[in-house]
């Protein structure tokens, strides 16, 4: 699983953009939020702490609920409509999770994957030499599923030697990407025939 991480994250803390506070909801301090996270149940659980971009202001979730696919949050200390309207537009961030815990849960941030060398896995379906370098991860793309964009080490060329394909898109699923080693800087691929140009 890939965790969302955004380019405008504050530098001083490892914080991830979670939501932007929207309009007041009712008279008791509840607000709607525009979410930027793929795990709202975790980020908006009672007691969860969110921060402003500079990390100086804390917003503690008192309770949360969904209504017609929208999240409605009540933060501690925002107790009336005036206070909730004053918070409108505030962007909130959450702390990044511990890398070791993420590793155990098999979760990754896109920035962790970009730059990794892509090698063929042991016992790959193509029957090719394990460890053969396919290329390098240059992007992580979210469409219907997460895709790794691999820049090929050996681009496909036409009869005149002109490069016709220099990258491949690989679905980021366990069957196709069995191993990831951040320390060693590589991941392994077990692609079916036709997925990687030239293989």
Automatic annotation (TrEMBL):
What processes does the entry annotate via GO biological process terms? ribosomal small subunit biogenesis; rRNA processing
Q: Which domain of life is it from?
A: Bacteria
The residue ranges of the RimM N-terminal domain are: 18-96
Cellular component terms (Gene Ontology): cytoplasm; ribosome
Q: Does the keyword Secreted apply?
A: no
Q: Which UniProt keywords apply?
A: Chaperone, Cytoplasm, Ribosome biogenesis, rRNA processing
UniProt subcellular location: Cytoplasm
Q: What Pfam families does this protein map onto?
A: PRC_RimM, RimM
Q: Please indicate if the UniProt record lists Chaperone as a keyword.
A: yes
Q: Quote one Gene Ontology molecular function term.
A: ribosome binding
| Ribosome maturation factor RimM PRC barrel domain mapped to chain residues | 111-195
Query: Function, please?
Result: An accessory protein needed during the final step in the assembly of 30S ribosomal subunit, possibly for assembly of the head region. Essential for efficient processing of 16S rRNA. May be needed both before and after RbfA during the maturation of 16S rRNA. It has affinity for free ribosomal 30S subunits but not for 70S ribosomes.
Domain note: The PRC barrel domain binds ribosomal protein uS19.
Q: Which family does it belong to?
A: Belongs to the RimM family.
Instruction: Share what the entry says about its subunit structure, partners included.
Output: Binds ribosomal protein uS19.
Return the protein name.
Ribosome maturation factor RimM
* Protein source organism: Bifidobacterium moukalabense DSM 27321
Taxonomic placement: Bacteria, Bacillati, Actinomycetota, Actinomycetes, Bifidobacteriales
Q: Which gene encodes it?
A: rimM
